[in-house]
Design a protein that fits this description.
Blueprint: E1 9-10, E2 16-23, E3 29-33, E4 40-43, H1 46-61, E5 63-64, E6 69-75, H2 78-114, H3 119-126, H4 130-137
Parallel strand pairs: 1-5, 2-6
Antiparallel strand pairs: 2-3, 3-4
Length: 138
């Protein structure tokens, strides 16, 4: 709805919309907003399609969507979804391992320097610079 001055009225705070994104046969992305009949848009990239969704919602409802939340659902063919899921899983595991590795490295620096090894020797053994060892000692 529009206000008397012609501006769009804001939507209720925190309104959620489910938006499905699918690639068409030419490689463009279509975005469909389920809660609003015949509300869709497209973009050459997924990012472009997503940026256009609020504009499509505003055009279909006549309301500003600045407070709306989008629940994005990207639909991919099974083989592509499997590859994406696997990559996300491994990236999550890698991030967890990186945190563990950092903690183990800090502990090794502490133990090795406490045992009397030089900063240079500790760095050489751990494959990090002496400056890196000094940072971990702080």
């Amino acid at each position: 709805m529009k206000a008397e001055d012609g501006t769009l009225m804001p939507m209720k705070r925190g309104h959620r919309y489910v938006v499905d994104y699918e690639r068409d046969e030419e490689g463009a992305w279509t975005a469909t907003v389920h809660e609003i009949e015949a509300c869709y848009t497209y973009g050459r990239s997924l990012d472009e399609a997503r940026r256009r969704v609020p504009e499509a919602i505003a055009a279909a409802t006549g309301k500003s969507v600045e407070n709306a939340k989008l629940d994005d659902r990207v639909k991919l063919p099974r083989d592509l979804q499997n590859a994406l899921d696997r990559a996300r899983e491994l990236r999550g595991e890698a991030q967890e391992r990186a945190v563990e590795a950092a903690a183990a490295t800090r502990e090794a620096v502490r133990v090795l320097t406490t045992a009397g090894l030089s900063v240079r020797d500790v760095g050489l053994l751990l494959g990090i610079s002496g400056q890196g060892v000094h940072k971990l000692l702080r």
